[in-house]
Amino acid sequence: MKVVHTPLHALHDGGMELHRGELVPCFEMPSRVDHILGALTRDGHAIQAPRDHDDAILERVHDPAYLAFLRGAWAEWRAEGREGFMLAGAFPARGLRRDIVPTGLHARLGYYSFDAGSPIVAGTWQAARAAAHCALTAADLVAAGERSAYALCRPPGHHAGRSTMGGYCFLNNAALAAQRLRDAGFARVAILDVDYHHGNGTQEIFWERGDVPFASIHGDPNTEYPFYLGHADERGAGAGEGCNHNFPLPRGTTWPEYEATLARALEALAAHAPDALVVSLGVDVFEGDPISQFKLAAGDFRPLGARTAALGLPTVLVQEGGYAVAEIGENVASVLATFA
Amino acid sequence: MKVVHTPLHALHDGGMELHRGELVPCFEMPSRVDHILGALTRDGHAIQAPRDHDDAILERVHDPAYLAFLRGAWAEWRAEGREGFMLAGAFPARGLRRDIVPTGLHARLGYYSFDAGSPIVAGTWQAARAAAHCALTAADLVAAGERSAYALCRPPGHHAGRSTMGGYCFLNNAALAAQRLRDAGFARVAILDVDYHHGNGTQEIFWERGDVPFASIHGDPNTEYPFYLGHADERGAGAGEGCNHNFPLPRGTTWPEYEATLARALEALAAHAPDALVVSLGVDVFEGDPISQFKLAAGDFRPLGARTAALGLPTVLVQEGGYAVAEIGENVASVLATFA
User: Fold this and answer.
1) Could you report the per-residue pLDDT of A223-261, keeping only the tens digit for each?
2) Distance from CA of A335 to the nearest CA of B (A)
3) Could you report the per-residue pLDDT of A111-165, keeping only the tens digit for each?
4) B315 to each of A119, B140, B181, how far by Cα in Å?
5) What are phi and psi of A248, to 5 degrees?
6) Is B113 near chain A, with CB under 8 Å?
């Protein structure tokens, strides 16, 4: 399978996240990519660099004002004489207004965020932009006739909404890939999100659209991040009514229940008769993941991939989470092997 | 003036706040009380302990489920084997649902919070409850005939909404005092909030009520905390339509402009013909405050108090912010002197 990768991801490094009352180095770290790249190279996948895309294409999915904020945030931070990393500390949550974009830097940082776990550092914009280009390039490859392609995106993307960052995500790579496939002529592009955490950003972006049905299998948001989206009663609205399919599962879920749920998710997507597929490929459903609570074994990733590949659709796989760094390469490689 | 104080406030100590990408000790610290108490003792004010009130009275202003959360949060945290302090990290902000109270501890912590700056420690509930009792006791004193009384509340309260904590605040002491005065027979209780930061919690609690008109003079939320409330166009709703008066002012505001604005705020409140007054007394409008940006001099607090006292209403003064610790006692004492 063609693999799209750029070392620019490593520019996003050095930030910390607020985790259970402590600032800790982000679980989402550059070495994740090294392990994936190692396993995919060993397996003989063809690695290629992303094609550069004009920033205007990002506006197909994201709010221009949000993009402008991301692009300039670090320079504003430095202009205030600050160093380290940017981390939002106050948010337009319950009881507060969401209808005014405030002018101050810290106010805007919180306005565009929903957690204190997604640090912006000097290279974040460049890395996020490069990750988006990986996803767009993989979509271009599939649009050009490849049966499948894999975008080794970092930072990940599925938590990023039209104008929100969070969960280590800034630009929604999977949403950009899906939109790219739509723009290339595919009539209906399904998105399957198998990351442990609900793909709240992707859901939000396509909530009112019927042309990009979305299904997500994830930890129950009652206890699992992102907490405030991902319930089964979220079905879409307007033209997207009935096109959103959430499958929250309890902590400790193992392969038999996961497999049955995956079958339901794939069936739900197939019912929309898609002609292309995007997979938000988080491998944090793995039992060894340090911040996730499903119990899939390494050997379960191959059938997970095989069931998905059996849809028989042109497919773009986009890397999302997975924080068991030593095993992440094998787990991703297992999925990709089933598409080859 | 009668001053209500309890040393129990000191149980709320040891937490840190996320401030500009760093965890730092809270600017809101126990020694603030020592300085205030020193100045007020010197000035001959009579210090008394709060009367204990049943927790049910807190439900006059706060959501019972929120109170249950605050009451049990630390025990839940410890039951997970955690130490240190609790600090929310993810929030139901833009793009996310606010209509479901999640079951998990960390999910609930974020659900009930709007910032990563209000740590819960072992003694937080006991201290917040004691601060509320100070405010209630001061209200009882005024209801019993005192012309004025001062509640030395810590933690402060005006950022706490019906079911939200933030800005160092857990229980809304000023709102509880106002409600107590209403329940004691005062027909219309005005609240004047002179803290540098908008009293978003108080505004929210009385937003749809005509019996507790609210006026706040504060830093422009475009750049100043709490960022997402406090604009001049917020006028109240329903029975409270026209009863909410916000006066955001720019950074660097000095006494002449402040005084003119205070006159407008007092005039707006007087138009509602209140028969009692609660003052949310933050003294972080002081030029030496480390996290605020107005430039009132120490000598401006006496006229600030005198203008307010000139309303001629039975008045409960409730301590809110003020982080120039060495000067906080003098500044509070200057205001209280004008009510004596």
Assistant:
1) 999 999 999 999 999 999 999 999 999 999 999 999 999
2) 31
3) 999 999 999 999 999 999 999 999 999 999 999 999 999 999 999 999 999 999 9
4) 46, 11, 10
5) -70, 140
6) yes
pLDDT tens readout for residues B174-191:
999 999 999 999 999 999
Are the C-beta atoms of A295 and A252 separated by less than 8 Å? yes
Catalytic residue among A9, A159, A218, A245: A159
- Measured over the CA atoms of residue A256, residue A257, residue A260 and residue A265, the dihedral's sign is negative
Order of all β-strands in the sheet with A2-4: A46-48, A2-4, A148-151, A315-319, A276-281, A189-193, A214-219, A244-249
Please give the residue of chain A at the shortest CA–CA distance from B117.
A89
Residue A113: strand pairing partners: A165
Question: Which of the four CATH numbers 3.40.50.300, 2.60.40.10, 3.90.950.10, 3.40.800.20 does domain A2-62+123-337 have?
Answer: 3.40.800.20
Comparing alpha-carbon positions, the chain A residue that sits nearest to B219 is A104
- Reference B319, options B139, B129, B148, B154; nearest CA is B154
Whether B91 sits inside 8 A of A96 (CB atoms) is no
ipTM above 0.85, yes or no: yes
pLDDT at A44 over 80: yes
Residue of B23, B63, B85, B91 best to disrupt the A interface, most CBs of A under 10 A: B91
**Domain ranges in chain A?**
2-62+123-337
